[in-house]
Amino acid sequence: MAKNDFWRLVDTDSSTADIPLQPGKALTVGRDPDCDIVLNSDCISRKHATLELITGGVHVIDLGSSNGSFVNDIPVGSGSLAKADDDIGFDTLRYQLKAPTPSVAATRVTPIQQGETTVLATAAAFLEGRSHAIANEIFPLAGQSFSIGRDENCDLPVQHSSVSFQHALLSCHNGLWTISDQQSSNGTLVNGKPAMDTPLKHGNKISCGNVILEYKVIGATAEMQSVQTIAPPQQPNPSAATPC
Fold it and tell me: Taking every annotated instance into account, which residue ranges of this chain make up the domain FHA (predicted)?
């Protein structure tokens, strides 16, 4: 597993290693050696809390501990959703929840000739959820196309009533990503404008119905995080040449 490509708890005082969170099961936190995450502190109950990785973050449930469990210093009680960069506390022990980080190793910068100009395109792109259940989730873009919709077979299935079964399609041509609406009921917008084979640039906001995503590019300088046009070298003008 590559570094930081998983959800994890980071000790805020950096005294211990990161705690990876496994998808598909509720992890028990406590002082008991049989817990999935063992915290050896007298302030921690034997069975203190559970953490379950779900879409959008981690569901934290206190198990009736003596000193409580917290998300951003608010007691979780029977359950609370912690999102990326939120603080999760077990009594006085504090951790920060970190989301997976897209790998910079996937980045490549490709020069593309288009007529008399050359463009630079970055291919290591991803979508980041900005609302609803997919907030703070990272969705790397790969291959030649990437579908969004309520259909479970979509590359990004989004279970929201404003999203159509097949809502939008992103396509990659020569390293450049574009997005088109797929005749959805509530439309697809890029920065508030209808999407139809619309080129995407770093920081563009994509609306699929009421669900918001942001298109991002990693591993390149700010000047290269969107398509850049480079003027071709000027050719000498023969008519202006000085005769020998």
Answer: 27-76, 146-195
